Structures are given as C-alpha cells and as structure tokens.
Amino acid sequence: MDPDFDMSLTIAMGEQFGHPTDGWPASTPYVHPYLGIIVRSIGLERAGGFFEAARQAYRRQQEIARVGGFQFGFPAYLSTELGEAEPTLALTAAWEAIKAVHEIAAHRDSGTDFGQYIDCAIAACARMPATA
User: Fold this and answer.
1) CA-CA distance, 14 to 120, in Å (whole number)?
2) 68's torsion region: left (phi>0), alpha (psi -120 to 50) or beta?
3) Which of 16, 101, 8 is nearest to 58 (CA)?
4) CB burial of residue 1 (10 Å; 0-12, 13-18, 19+)
5) Is the pTM above the cut of 0.90?
6) Could you list the pLDDT tens digit for every one of the 132 residues in the chain?
7) Cβ contacts of residue 80 below 8 Å, gap of 6+?
8) Residue 106 CB partners (closer than 8 Å, separation 6+)
9) Distance (Å, rounded) from C-alpha 39 to C-alpha 45?
10) Are the beta carbons of 99 and 71 closer than 8 angstroms?
C-alpha cells in the first residue's frame, strides 16, 4: 500500500471510529488494504471520483431497500454511477476491490457500514497532495 495513503486512511479512520485501542470495527483490518488497492490501481485523482461513485451507488441501494423496491445490487448501481468508463485492467482491479469492501462491511461485523469506510477513503484522498 502507498505509505502516504495508508497513513491518511488510518488518520481518517481514527477520526471516524476513534482511537484504534478503543475497538475499531472488526472488518477494518480487512477493508483497509482493499481501499489501498483502489488508489494504487487507478491513481489518487481517479480514486476520489471512484469512491464518490461508490458512495452514490450505496445510497441508491439503501434508498431502494428502504422503499422496498426491486434490488439490482451494489455492482449494478456502481456501474450506473461510473457511466461509460473504459474497462481497463486498473479499473477492473478497483471494481473488484470495492466489491470486496462492500461485502466485507456487510458480512464481517455490525459495528460499521460500507458508507463509513467510503467516507474514510474520500477523506484520506482529500488529505493527499495532488501530486501524490
């Protein structure tokens, strides 16, 4: 993982969840590396937009669940949010990593949700210098 992004993400998670010794969610050590894969795969500038698309897809998934509509699932909503992005190897790696984060957050523990992890990733990207 990029040590700068790793540190920024750790700081953002600390702001979200408190001090690590206070008991971060059990899924945190599993999610953290996948978020780094996304940044390493598509770069910092694209990662910010990618995380925002994931946030919007998750919100759409939650809203449809709230109203009891037919669910197509997070990957379908993410695809819609990303639009006509060219399917490169880098984007595929990011795609698979964000799906893993979504699944881990949904099934590993009830101490957090996917949206909190995405908020941390977006905050970490915002901390990074634009030239990183």
Assistant:
1) 9
2) left
3) 101
4) middle
5) no
6) 455 898 999 999 999 998 887 778 888 989 999 999 999 999 998 999 999 999 999 999 999 989 988 889 999 999 999 998 888 999 999 999 999 999 999 887 666 789 999 999 999 999 887 654
7) 57, 60
8) 113, 114
9) 9
10) no
